[in-house]
Design goal:
Oligomer: single chain
Helix content: 10-25%
Structural class: alpha+beta
Shape: globular
Order of helices and strands: HEEEEEHEH
């Protein structure tokens, strides 16, 4: 699996969700791309009335030749879009699920044997 292909797919997904440094009201969406260590996050920060908002919207890592979707707090369907972008199911790990549940998902388990 080409890392550049995965990076392109992640960039496409983030662009579909929100442009970099986009502001919606008092919320700012930030892209964080660590291309050396292969960590990619879409963050939200700001205020919703009197409540502070700061958190991860999407987090994807590339480890051991697999794409780990660690977090997807969207209705977008990050995993489905990775597949549409040509990343095979056997290369995608649903990182938010326990390893026990991953074995039944149809996606990669991420277990090293």
């Amino acid at each position: 699996m080409e890392i550049e292909k995965v990076q392109h797919a992640i960039r496409h997904i983030f662009e579909d969700i929100t442009p970099p440094k986009a502001r919606i009201g008092d919320l700012e969406y930030q892209w964080v791309f660590d291309t050396e260590r292969h960590h990619y996050q879409l963050l939200v920060t700001g205020w919703e009335q009197t409540r502070r908002i700061h958190g991860i919207v999407v987090q994807i890592d590339i480890r051991d030749g697999l794409v780990w979707v660690q977090e997807d707090n969207t209705d977008y369907g990050v995993v489905n879009e990775l597949e549409r972008q040509g990343i095979p199911k056997n290369k995608i790990v649903l990182g938010w699920q326990s390893s026990f549940m991953r074995q039944h998902s149809g996606y990669a388990t991420g277990n090293v044997s």
